[in-house]
Amino acid sequence: MKLERVLQYTKTLLSLSIEKGEVAVDGTAGNGHDTLFLAELVGENGHVYSFDIQQQAVDATEQKLKEHDLLSRATVILDGHEHISKYVHSEIAGAVFNLGYLPGANHQIVTRGNTTIQALKQILTQLKIGGIIVLVVYYGHDGGTEERDAVIDFVSGLSQKHVHVLQYKFLNQKNNPPFIIALEKIKQLPEESY
Ligand SMILES: C[S@@+](CC[C@H](N)C(=O)[O-])C[C@H]1O[C@@H](n2cnc3c(N)ncnc32)[C@H](O)[C@@H]1O
């Protein structure tokens, strides 16, 4: 028996929810690792919408897709994930966010609670029943604990009739290791509920 580590469990959750031909979202493209994984999951008839506010991340993600000959399966958008509903109009099968900063880039450019929550609300509205949103929460940087607490506060308030909210976290690891928050949509949420 080996408990899946955070990054492996993220992939397991996404692959259980997203099927070939469906639409997936990467809320934080970064170096494109998750976008590439999603592009493989959705297959040739599906599509991935990937967001980042840094040109460097958009370029790195497009380059990674090109190297694997999968560029046509994804649209990489230079804009904040809080504008997802402007770009994605179809049902979403699954989404992933890696919170924090882009490794190797400016550590001041980080995800923020307010915009992360705006993105979650938009995706929850468009998520299929049985679809999943996986957040990998890194919080060791400046502003990280504020974002972590804001996101936990928001997801903890979601009605259990509509969304199952999971936290997956190793409690005895040192140095602020990342943990997972996963949201599984069970039933369409009334707009006024968030
Ligand atoms: C931890 S990194 C993502 C790592 C990425 N998943 C990978 O596989 O390399 C977080 C990314 O979120 C981006 N970001 C910050 N605020 C954002 C926002 N409002 N919308 C979209 N991306 C944002 C940063 O530019 C950074 O590239």
From TrEMBL:
Keywords on record: Methyltransferase, Transferase
Domain of life: Bacteria
Alphabetical list of InterPro entries matching this protein: MnmM_MeTrfase, SAM-dependent_MTases_sf
A Pfam family that the UniProt record links to this protein: rRNA_methylase
GO BP terms in the entry: methylation
GO MF: methyltransferase activity
Protein's UniProt name: Methyltransferase domain-containing protein
Species of the source: Lysinibacillus composti
